[in-house]
Structures are given as C-alpha cells and as structure tokens.
Amino acid sequence: MATIESYETKAGLRYMVRYRGLDRKQTKERGIKTKREALARKAAIEFELSRGEFIKPSMGQVTISELSEPWLDRKRGHLKPSSLRPLEISLRRQVLPRWENWRISEIRHTGVQQWITDMRRGDPDRGVKPLSATVVIRAYGILAGILDDAVKDQLLQKNPARGVTLPKKGKKAHVYLSHEDVHRLAEESEHPTVVFVLAYCGLRWGEMAALRVKDVNHFKRRLHVEQNAVYVGGDLHIGSPKTHEVRSVPFPKFLADPLRESCAGRHPDDLVFPGPDLRPMRTPRVSAESRSWLAGALRRAELPLITPHDLRHTAASLAVSARANVKAVQRMLGHASAAMTLDVYADLFDDDLDAVADRMNEAVSALSVPKLCPNQETGDMLKASTSA
C-alpha cells in the first residue's frame, strides 16, 4: 500500500507518496503540489502495482540517443548488411536529429505525428526537401522500435509512437519485357548471358553475381542458388539469398550453350560472371545520364530504362504467360510463400479471373435447367406484393 506525507519547502507545502515497488524496495515520489494530485498519484501507483505494470518515473529519463545504439546493435545480429545500412542512414539522418536528446518519458503521440508530417512536407524556406513515404515509414519504424523495446524493458508503460497516421506508399508499376524485347536487349549488351539469366530465371542481381561454376548443373539444366553477393557502402558482402532459402532454378534449353561457354576453363569455385576485377559484378546504374553497360544496351535496343530487378519481374511475367502455376513461380523466384508471389504480381493473374468466370458459365450452360429470364423474378415479386 502507498502512503501520503506532507512536508514544508521554501515554496510552500508539498506532498510525497511512499510505496514499495515491484522489486520490494522502498521508494518515494516528491514534489507533488496538492493533496488531490497526491491522492490521484497514490491511486494510480496502487493500481499499477496490483497489475504488475508499475514503472518508476525515473526509468523514463533515459534518452533516445542512449537507447538507439543498443537497438541497432541488436539488429546487427540478424539483419543482412544490405538491410542494416538503410537503418543506420535513417537513424543518423532522420531520427537522431529530431529525437536524440529527448527523454523517452517526454515523447508524446502528437509530437511523433507532427514529426511525420514535417518530414513529408519538408521546409522550402530552409531548403529541406519533402521525404518519400518509404523514407518516412522507415524512420518512424526505427523510433517506434526503440520505444517498443523500452516498453518491454519496463522503461515505459506504453509506446507513444504507436497509432499515428503514416503516409501510404504508392505501388510502383512493374515493367515487363516481351521475349522479343529480351532478345533485342541481349543482342545489344556486352553481357547477353547475364541478361538471359535474369530475364528467364528470375534471379536477383546478387544471386546471379554470386553464381559459381559448380552451381551450374548442365545435365539437369539447373542453377543452384545458395549465395548472394552485394556491395554495401563499397564493401563486398557475400551471404545467403534474401529469404535464407537455398533453391534450384531451371534454365531454358537455349541457355545451355551460353552457360557452358561462361563456365569453360574455370575452376568449380570460380564465378560464372566475374567483374573486371574478378570479383562479383556490381549492379549497373540505370538513369538518363548513366553510362553503364545496361543503360547503353537499353538505349540501343530502344527500350525503356529499366533496372536489373525489372528483368526479374520480366521472368515472372514470362513464366505466368507460359501457364506456370503460382507455386512454380514462387519456387523459381525464391519468395517466402505463394501468397507473397500473388501479392507482388497480382496484375499478372488478371486473365485468370476472366477464365474462372468463363469456366463457370460453361459449367452452367451444360446443365439441363431452365434459362433465367431477367424479368421473370421481378414480375413474380410484383404479383406477390399486389396480391398481399
């Protein structure tokens, strides 16, 4: 049970609440100005203690700056470098400049909402550009994640960042190339086999770049995907594929000879597609100003400026147009589930909806039942209503 005591100060009468915390240690909160406030605080403490939810006010004095590095360090334990780096950048550029010295007990829901609004709006007078929904959501996720951990560690009772309104990310339309487009691009490219592997096997760029000679099974026409090569901040990192799942991807027969040529004379551990320095190829930049081999090939082939990842989308499109089922496409692309494949490529399955309706119509047409008359049911209802 908590108790209330009064004491004199130079500013006048003040009250304190004494109680034993969940750790059974005697504690007091001083400086309460009125007895009514002291009684309210006493009731709140007793209620929170009875539910095992009591948190000392002093625990909320820790700052976001003090919690941010341990939070990021915990992420290092299970995130790939390519996923960790955007968090490090966002923490440094968006989160800490705003919240670095704030005590977690001082952060309010409305303050977090205003921060999100300010990031989306920008400040033209100070030359601050509006941030994209993706960047804003990432920054918010870092702050909310830090405060979530504070709640779990009983530094806060609830997370003030949860429940805010976030901007919606616009879904970027996929660009799909046709068979003719892919072959024209390959003809104009200095790396035609790379283009074919991306566009017909659906590998991510890092998966293609990490392929070794021993990963190519010429007899079964399979690519064994178990590594991913990615450059993060200029440093090369080789790890497992995005979903950590090793997979076997078939390649079409026309790719057998080009792949055999790419592997010829190389050690089983050598890369199939090495860069100029014999390390994994770097992702080519594609923009109006880019002079990369892919950007040049796209211009010569008179195709839109697409990224290497768009060739992965093309592989999904070509597989679906070849009547591959969703499960097969999922396995080829290395998605975590068929549901994810459907979510990402829902637009590719629109024709299936029409096919379902057509097959239902065919099934009903084959039945020996009277045809529905559009006005018959309505007329019967009117007659019934009149007679009633």
Question: How would you concisely characterize the structure shown here?
Answer:
This protein has 388 residues and is mainly alpha-helical. The chain is built from 15 helices and 8 strands. Helix 6 (179-188) packs antiparallel against helix 7 and helix 6 (179-188) packs across helix 10.
Indicate the mean pLDDT: 87
Q: CATH topology of the largest domain, which one?
A: hpI Integrase, Chain A
- Spans of at least 5 consecutive residues whose pLDDT stays below 50 are none
- What is the distance, rounded to the nearest whole angstrom, between the alpha carbons of the first and last residues? 72 Å
CATH class of the largest domain: Mainly Alpha
CATH superfamily of the largest domain: Intergrase catalytic core
Account of the 3D structure:
The protein has 388 residues and is mainly alpha-helical. The chain has 3 domains: 3-54; 64-152, DNA polymerase, domain 1, CATH 1.10.150; 179-348, Orthogonal Bundle (hpI Integrase, Chain A), CATH 1.10.443. It is 46% helix and 11% strand. It is built from 15 helices and 8 strands. The protein has helices spanning 35-50, 64-76, 81-99, 109-121, 133-152, 179-188, 192-201, 205-209, 256-263, 293-300, 308-321, 326-333, 338-344, 350-365, 376-387; strands at 3-9, 12-20, 26-32, 216-217, 222-225, 228-232, 235-239, 247-250. The strands form 3 sheets. A 3-stranded antiparallel β-sheet has the order 1-2-3, covered by helices on one side. A 3-stranded antiparallel β-sheet has the order 4-5-8. A two-stranded antiparallel sheet has the order 6-7. Helix 2 (64-76) crosses helix 5 (133-152), helix 6 packs antiparallel against helix 7 and helix 6 (179-188) crosses helix 10. The chain is elongated, with a radius of gyration of 31 Å. The mean pLDDT is 87.
